[in-house]
Design a protein that fits this description.
The complex is a heterodimer of chains A (254) and B (332). Chain A is of the alpha/beta class. Chain A has a domain at 4-92 and 167-249: Rossmann fold (3-Layer(aba) Sandwich). Helix content of chain A is 36%, strand content 25%. Chain A has helices at residues 44-52, 74-80, 97-106, 123-135, 151-163, 181-195, 207-213, 231-236, 238-249, and strands at 4-15, 18-29, 33-37, 59-64, 67-68, 82-85, 169-173, 199-203, 216-221, 224-229. In chain A, helix 3 packs across helix 4 (123-135), helix 3 packs parallel to helix 5 (151-163) and helix 5 runs parallel beside helix 6 (181-195). The longest helix of chain A has 15 residues, at 181-195. Chain B is an all-alpha fold and 332 residues long. In chain B, the strands form two sheets. A two-stranded antiparallel ribbon of chain B has the order 1-2. The radius of gyration of chain B is 20 Å and the shape is globular. Chain B starts with a helix and ends in a 7-residue tail after the last helix. Classes of the chains: A alpha/beta (254), B mainly alpha (332). Chain A binds chain B through residues 52, 54, 73-76, 78-79, 83-84, 86, 90, 92-95, 99, 102-104, 106-108, 112-120, 122, 161, 164-165, and chain B through 193, 196-197, 199-205, 207-208, 211-212, 214-223, 226, 229.
Chain lengths: 254, 332
């Protein structure tokens, strides 16, 4: 087995009475698209927050690219190449598309204690911003304030910002949330293209997308990873069917 | 879109500059020389407000303790020039540090001391956010206020006088007109710096932190450092304003750093237009001119100011600047 890019070893996180992560472990290999699925309230977002450093685990370890990052602040992880996109679109609505991407580029190219020269004239930003827009098909929208983009375009920009630093790994938090069918098709195309460039951990509700995109899937229930395997293995897993897929089939069983 | 807002903006900035440049001449001709010193005060407060606006309007840091840096700048000038005048050392140990009279030494010292204070206060305050940040900046400013109240050697509650305005080669600061132009130059320089700053890489980071600090961190920015530096720059700007106000009134007291003074500077920013370059000047002018006019009729002039402020905040989203220059424009 190849060495994992991201290795999460038995992390635990408790919020009051809720055990949001219960000895949660996951291994994501170089180059794969790994999906993390689970019913509502299973602790997917909490798990993701511990990977990107916005929440620190109570116990357990997180390794990324051979380094222990368990307690590292989120900005350091981002600098190491662990990028994240948010479920609730977090683009800078007051800034234009190109300014949003410029900021993301800035984060990975030198410090920003530069007070005099205009950011738009920065040679590094000038060189990289156009390809960054092209990557998520937003060149035509360069000077539009992000607030005026469609929902789908905001998601594209969101992903584009996470990609701007050429990360080794991308954490995608429910990119299909609130997306119409047209946007979903576009996004699937985009993710398929990204799959060839970067390792992805995809947290997603949309089962169709997950089973068509993922190389491997981990199923999270009550903070625990109950199964991990290829889409076919997961489909065939009785435990998963009971805990999750079955739950969805007869929706009112809760 | 029509081009009207652009023209209005250019026109209003041009008019404002012309008024400020011509003011001493006009005031002299009209036989109202006291206007020159009133407007010097306005320019100085405008500088303090502009420095607050840098962290508030662009960086999203709401501080209720900004007058602390204003006061530190003023006290630095007064204390050092008192020692300079008396020829006594300020510090005998570990090295001898004497006072001075020259503005070229005292003003950078004022800026430096305020920046240092801002570094300490900022480093502690910026670990909190929102309401806590407002309260902790307020608390630090009040601590400094009471520190200077109890500092008997430098006048305590009564404050201390400046024996004479600082000296600058080639200028006579006792001349109110020359002093006015000095204040105008200081304000212009700070605004130019602010303008460059908000469009620089640093400025983009600060503006990003205002909108979504969590996202800035996940992009890879150590946001604390950037916000701290912004806080220090704002403190330094207020320190420069403090150095000028000490020269303008030739007197400083702890009242300069009382929390109500911080509130006034905050009101100037809100009134003039938060996150705009020229708003703080308009805010400072509006507040001080209203005070000047209304206090002729009643000592309870605040009663009239209050409703005015409420109306501006309710109906002019970008303050007076937004009303004059067209509200939908960007901050530059």
């Amino acid at each position: 087995m190849t060495k994992s890019l991201l290795s999460v070893q038995s992390i635990n996180k408790r919020f009051g009475a809720v055990q949001a992560s219960d000895n949660f472990s996951i291994e994501v290999a170089h180059g794969e698209l790994h999906a993390l699925i689970g019913p509502n309230g299973a602790g997917k977002t909490t798990a993701l927050n511990q990977l990107c450093g916005e929440t620190m685990p109570d116990r357990g370890q997180v390794f990324f690219d051979g380094r222990r990052i368990t307690r590292m602040p989120s900005y350091r992880r981002a600098q190491l190449g662990l990028a994240r996109s948010y479920q609730i679109t977090s683009v800078f609505t007051h800034l234009t598309v190109s300014q949003n991407l410029s900021l993301a580029i800035q984060a990975h190219h030198g410090h920003s204690f530069r007070f005099w020269k205009k950011a738009v004239d920065d040679p590094v930003i000038r060189r990289l911003v156009v390809p960054a827009m092209a990557r998520v098909d937003l060149e035509a929208r360069a000077n539009i304030p992000a607030a005026n983009l469609s929902h789908g375009e905001k998601r594209q920009l969101e992903v584009g910002m996470a990609l701007a630093g050429h990360p080794k790994m991308l954490l995608l938090d429910e990119p299909y949330a609130g997306m119409g069918p047209g946007g979903a098709v576009e996004l699937t195309k985009l993710i398929k293209r990204l799959k060839t460039e970067v390792t992805i951990l995809l947290v997603e509700h949309d089962m169709g997308a997950v089973f068509s995109l993922a190389d491997r899937i981990t199923v999270l229930v009550y903070g625990q990873a109950i199964a991990s395997g290829t889409p076919d293995e997961i489909r065939a897993n009785p435990q998963v069917r009971e805990a999750y897929l079955g739950d969805e089939a007869n929706g009112c069983s809760k | 879109m029509d081009r009207l807002p652009v023209n209005r903006k250019t026109l209003s900035v041009f008019t404002g500059t012309a008024v400020l440049l011509a003011l001493p001449t006009v005031a002299g001709a009209a036989g109202e020389p006291y206007l020159v010193s009133l407007f010097s005060r306005i320019l100085i407060y405008a500088l303090a407000a502009a420095s607050l606006d840098l962290m508030l309007g662009f960086g999203g840091m709401v501080s209720l303790g900004h007058a602390a840096f204003f006061g530190i700048g003023a006290y630095t000038v007064c204390i050092l020039s008192m020692h300079g005048f008396e020829g006594t050392p300020l510090l005998a140990w570990p090295f001898e540090l004497g006072g001075h009279q020259s503005g070229l030494v005292l003003w950078p010292a004022a800026v430096l001391f305020s920046a240092a204070a801002a570094a300490v206060i900022g480093a502690l305050s910026l670990r909190t956010s929102g309401m806590h940040f407002i309260m902790i900046t307020l608390a630090f400013a009040q601590m400094l206020y009471y520190f200077f109240v109890s500092l008997e050697a430098y006048g305590g509650d009564d404050g201390i006088s400046l024996f004479a305005r600082n000296t600058v080669p080639g200028m006579d600061l006792t001349n109110d007109t020359q002093f006015y132009y000095l204040c105008l130059a200081a304000l212009t320089a700070f605004l130019l710096f602010s303008y460059r700053l908000v469009h620089s890489r640093f400025g983009m980071v600060i503006r990003g932190c205002k909108e979504n600090e969590r996202r800035m961190k996940s992009l890879g920015f150590p946001t604390f450092r950037y916000r701290l530096v912004c806080f220090i720059i704002a403190g330094a700007g207020a320190g420069l304003a403090g150095a000028l106000i000490a020269n303008q009134t030739e007197y400083v007291s702890p009242g300069l750093m009382h929390w109500t003074r911080s509130g006034e500077i905050l009101v100037m920013v809100l009134l003039g237009g938060m996150g705009t370059l020229f708003g703080p000047i308009l805010g400072a002018a509006a507040l001080l001119l209203l005070e000047e006019c209304l206090s002729i009729y009643t000592e309870h002039w605040m009663v009239y100011l209050g409703p005015f402020l409420v109306l501006v905040v309710l109906f002019a989203r970008r303050g007076i600047y937004g009303m004059i220059a067209g509200g939908n424009g960007n901050h530059d």
